[in-house]
Amino acid sequence: MAFRITGLDPREFTHLAPLTDEALARHRAVRRICDANPGFPCRVSLEDAQPGEAVLLLNYEHLPVDSPYRSSHAIYVRQAANEPFDGVDVIPPALRSRLLSVRAFDAQGHIVDADITEGRDVEPLIERFFALDDVSYIHAHFARRGCFAARIDRHVIPA
Questions:
Q1: Residues 6 or more apart from 149 whose CB is under 8 A from it?
Q2: What InterPro entries does the entry give (predicted)?
Q3: Measured between alpha carbons, how far is residue 36 from residues 39, 40, 127 in Å?
Q4: Total of domains in the chain
């Protein structure tokens, strides 16, 4: 089964880039300068920021559902990221190189199944979850820090 991984829309964050540190704090956000690679995985481009590159660290509601699983967590966004990752049957670099917690959700935002895997081995887990009829979408999280990484959807090839 084909799957599609998408990064977050950069337009959700462009208003934050020009803000002062004080103004960012009012948005529960801070600006950081990347000092290591890997270490600052951007949720737009789904690649790690390069040393010296500015990133925003902010709280993001990645599961805005009306269920007990509603959730938000800290994420990094590269200030220079202007195109979201969008790949079919491709695992982006930020996910491929990390331990992932992978969670399958139904249409009501309830967890159907979950597991942990190395990013280099995630495809069979995605396939296993999408083989379940009640799975609507999948979220990948970076297992060590618990941060939301990306959404994974079934990819339907147009007829």
A1: 41, 43, 46, 94, 95, 98, 100, 139, 140, 141, 142
A2: DUF1203
A3: 6, 8, 33
A4: 1
